[in-house]
Amino acid sequence: MDDIGQYAPAEDANAQFGPIDPGAESTVAESSNSINGPNGTDTPKYPTPTRSLVHLRQPPPRLAEMRTRLFELKEKIELRVEEFELYWPYVDNVWVRQHRANADKSGRVITDYYACRLQRPTYNPSKGLRPEGKPARKKQIRQGGTCQKRLKTVHHNGGYTGITIIPVGDQDEHTHDLDHIDEVKRTSVLMDIARSEVMRGYMPASVFTVMNEDPEKLAMSGGRHLNRNDVRNASQAWRQHYKAELRVHEGYKYDHGNGIVRQDFIDPTLTNNFTDIIDAAMSGPSPLPPNTLRFPEELQAMLEPYLPPKGLAVDPSGLQLPHVTLTYATSMDSCLTLAPGLQTILSGPESKAMTHFLRSRHDAILIGVGTATADDPGLNCRLEGVGGFGGIGWEGQPRPVIIDPGARWVVTPESRILKTVHEGKGRGPWIIIATGFAMDPMRLEMLKFYGGKYLGLTEFDNRHRLRWEAILKALSAEGIRSVMIEGGGKVINDLLLPNHSHLVNSAVVTIAPTYLGREGLLVSPAPKHDESGRPQPVLRFKNVKWQPMGEDIVMCAKVRDEDVEK
């Protein structure tokens, strides 16, 4: 898993149409033949552990954070398949799969439904018949039916492969905390590690002691309540067939009355095998892509007042419009390009990094079809720490949105934006069109294959253009809370007009030290006149701040009076 540090990536998904293999439902592989125990002891068929103490000593990056997020599930979480397989076993003591829905028509989307473990009915262990003279086992009654929190996982396989975890149902929060469920049930990771050590010939008491060597990492994996009985139970079936004497770990000893303890002196030539089997993929973080960008924290703080507030709530009704930031790079003579349709690079490396930081702070990035056709953009974020560049899943990656009323833009697998999606470094684009066009079914299927879609709108203004209010409401209804609008010229000039500028919250404009000339694509909205026909300023920004960045200078400003008051 290159993008999160210590784990090697899974193979790329096969980017072609067809059904997907749902895959194994367990993280423990089962051997088809008998396996050998320590010292060549033959044991019957038994599940082969897939983890060792290495996984406890070197847990996945951000494990504590991911366990909390997957437990609370305050909003949807998008993970790559290998990330899901990595983190989900650390919360499989919380969530129990209820059923699998039918796959969609393409066979590439599979949905599973899960419920909190405490939704199960109260467990009353059967007493059963015991042999004469043998005391009854003390089985704990587990109180059930106390939590109704649920979720679903949507596995998409196509031009990109990922799993989206979505909260469902009426209950927003658990009725208990994560520590309580860790006390009720152990994760499969802990039980697998315990089983693997016993199967190497170690006493359960010794395994328990070694696993508790680092209580902080044990708790991070959900093992704060792990006890010796858990280790015994994890390996009981195997120990019934393995008759040789079990031993303690090297460097430990049995101390009567204290159990297994460390020796006062450990011979440096004696090392536990688990310290020597660290996988190369776990020995250090994987390198970031060479085009990864970094942006200084002090400049991030300067931009903060002009960015969408953190923690904005999703409004499924679409009534609450997204926060809109207008941003673009221009020349000294207010030109975007040397000529219409001609891609022109204006931003220096410093302001380019700033642009990618801005992208990381918005849910969507929007351009017009002219820019999409002329520039063939990737429309992703390359900032260090976002998904595909050191982050988890697609966090920090904005959703590309292309305004294409006439459905002119023909996207193909060779388009840069879809290549970016296939590489796991961006999201599938949403294309906003005017309804009524006879779309080629293959174009629809192609976009869906890469995680994108078409959004059809029917609301037009008096110039027969799609209304900006309708566009923003549609995005809000899709869960978009903030939009960064980058161009092109028609889009920018249109939003600077008095009848549209009230939709824009902030503006971040990069000015490069160059003149492009009179043939350039100009940023200059249509003129405004008063009742007597006298020219008036179209728009004046507020709360303006200027910041040099390399050879460029960046202007940050508020657009609406109500945002100035905030």
Automatic annotation (TrEMBL):
Entry keywords, A to Z: Riboflavin biosynthesis
UniProt-listed InterPro entries: DHFR-like_dom_sf, RibDG_C, Riboflavin_Biosynth_HTPR
Domain Bacterial bifunctional deaminase-reductase C-terminal: 322-554
Reaction catalysed by this enzyme: 2,5-diamino-6-(1-D-ribitylamino)pyrimidin-4(3H)-one 5'-phosphate + NAD(+) = 2,5-diamino-6-(1-D-ribosylamino)pyrimidin-4(3H)-one 5'-phosphate + NADH + H(+); 2,5-diamino-6-(1-D-ribitylamino)pyrimidin-4(3H)-one 5'-phosphate + NADP(+) = 2,5-diamino-6-(1-D-ribosylamino)pyrimidin-4(3H)-one 5'-phosphate + NADPH + H(+)
Gene Ontology terms, MF aspect: 5-amino-6-(5-phosphoribosylamino)uracil reductase activity
BP GO annotations: riboflavin biosynthetic process
Transmembrane segments: none
Gene3D superfamilies per UniProt: Dihydrofolate Reductase, subunit A
Broad EC category: oxidoreductase
Region of interest called Disordered, as start-end residue ranges on this chain: 1-55
Matching PANTHER family: 2,5-DIAMINO-6-RIBOSYLAMINO-4(3H)-PYRIMIDINONE 5'-PHOSPHATE REDUCTASE, DIHYDROFOLATE REDUCTASE FAMILY PROTEIN (AFU_ORTHOLOGUE AFUA_8G06820)
Biological role: Catalyzes an early step in riboflavin biosynthesis, the NADPH-dependent reduction of the ribose side chain of 2,5-diamino-6-ribosylamino-4(3H)-pyrimidinone 5'-phosphate, yielding 2,5-diamino-6-ribitylamino-4(3H)-pyrimidinone 5'-phosphate.
Protein name: 2,5-diamino-6-ribosylamino-4(3H)-pyrimidinone 5'-phosphate reductase
Gene designation per UniProt: RIB7
